[in-house]
């Protein structure tokens, strides 16, 4: 698998031959299970084949149970300068419910060790809206995160995706979904506490200390090019979307025998408009009306203006220096707002 990743990195280098690489992200799984030397080899291949910026953001997704003082020190020395840690909760009951391998103390200790190793850009993931999660329990989660003095927090409302254990248990009545009004209260509490603690709310689910937003994820939201390596990885070059097969066997066979291991689609203007809506509206930077008018045909601009007026009047959107942004009142129903702005059929 690792040899396959290296080979794809080498094969696809010509796609970014004139581009400077500003972010490198090891994620989309649990790369912290790899050995330090394995991670180092992958980074070396990237540096050998791509033009990496001097101060590039290099992130590793990690589970707390994969981390130790020695590993964290080695990761820092290897070149990683940002950690994204899948903490999920500071409640033992919640962690057990989610079948997480780590405990609360392990998560707290991992953050402290990361700081000691020299990491100054640490992100942690939290989940709210869990079954039976009280507002008091959620407040405790958020305040512990603040006390740990991390630079970035991503907080997601639990969703029940078909095919997952949570979804099956929900359908069987083993779990009971938290009412929307309670999830909303938890979200509002999250925003309030983090704002008071000096965090910027720069994307629906993401908060950071001033200026320390995820450069990598922000590149997606700002419609910049990205290259995805590995099974199921997606790539985007502003014109075409590409995605690799999910089967590891088919992926490796394609690389070994020089046969197709990915699919792609050329984006229509409607696709690009919808992508622009989904990525732009979810951020604090919003959507530039000027960019909208010079980029898309009038029928898309007209559709955007019509939806915009509706939500400006309801208070779910607001203007900010020529840009249309989601107001605090619209954040929790942002999916519905973005769906209204999107074009499903030809205008």
Give structural notes.
This protein is an alpha/beta fold. It folds into 2 domains: 201 residues, Transcription Regulator spoIIAA, CATH 3.30.750; 73 residues, Orthogonal Bundle (Arc Repressor Mutant, subunit A), CATH 1.10.10. It is 44% helix and 20% strand. A 7-stranded mixed sheet has the order 1-2-3-4-5-7-6. A 3-stranded antiparallel sheet has the order 8-9-10, with no helix packed on it. The chain has a 3-stranded antiparallel sheet with strand order 11-13-12. Strand 6 and strand 7 form a beta hairpin. The model has no long low-confidence stretch (mean pLDDT 93).
User: Percent of residues in beta strands?
Assistant: 15-25%
Largest sheet, spatial ordering of strands = 1-2-3-4-5-7-6
Tally of strands: 13
Largest sheet: 7 strands, mixed
* Straight-line N-to-C gap: 45 Å
């Amino acid at each position: 698998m690792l040899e396959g990743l290296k080979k794809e990195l080498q094969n696809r280098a010509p796609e970014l031959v004139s581009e400077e690489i500003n972010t490198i992200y090891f994620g989309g799984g649990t790369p912290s299970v790899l050995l330090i030397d394995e991670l180092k080899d992958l980074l070396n291949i990237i540096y050998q084949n791509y033009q990496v910026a001097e101060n590039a953001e290099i992130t590793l997704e990690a589970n707390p149970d994969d981390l130790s003082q020695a590993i964290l020190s080695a990761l820092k020395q290897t070149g990683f300068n940002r950690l994204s840690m899948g903490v999920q909760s500071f409640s033992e009951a919640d962690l057990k419910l989610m079948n997480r391998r780590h405990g609360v103390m392990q998560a707290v200790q991992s953050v402290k060790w990361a700081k000691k190793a020299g990491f100054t850009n640490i992100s942690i993931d939290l989940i709210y809206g869990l079954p039976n999660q009280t507002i008091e329990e959620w407040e405790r989660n958020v305040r512990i995160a603040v006390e740990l003095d991390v630079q970035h927090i991503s907080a997601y409302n639990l969703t029940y995706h078909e095919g997952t254990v949570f979804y099956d248990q929900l359908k069987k009545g083993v779990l009971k979904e938290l009412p929307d009004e309670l999830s909303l209260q938890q979200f509002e509490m999250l925003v309030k506490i983090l704002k008071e603690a000096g965090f910027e709310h720069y994307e629906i689910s993401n908060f950071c200390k001033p200026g320390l937003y995820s450069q990598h994820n922000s590149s997606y939201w700002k419609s910049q090019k990205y290259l995805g390596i590995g099974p199921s990885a997606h790539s985007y070059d502003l014109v075409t979307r590409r995605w690799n097969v999910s089967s590891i066997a088919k992926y490796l066979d394609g690389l070994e025998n020089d046969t197709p291991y990915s699919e792609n689609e050329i984006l229509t203007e409607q696709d690009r408009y919808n992508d622009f809506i989904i990525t732009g509206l979810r951020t604090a930077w919003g959507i530039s009306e000027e960019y909208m008018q010079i980029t898309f045909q009038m029928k898309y601009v007209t559709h955007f203006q019509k939806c915009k007026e509706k939500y400006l009047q309801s208070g779910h959107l607001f203007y900010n220096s020529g840009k249309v942004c989601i107001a605090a009142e619209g954040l929790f129903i942002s999916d519905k707002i973005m769906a209204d702005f999107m074009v499903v059929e030809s205008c």
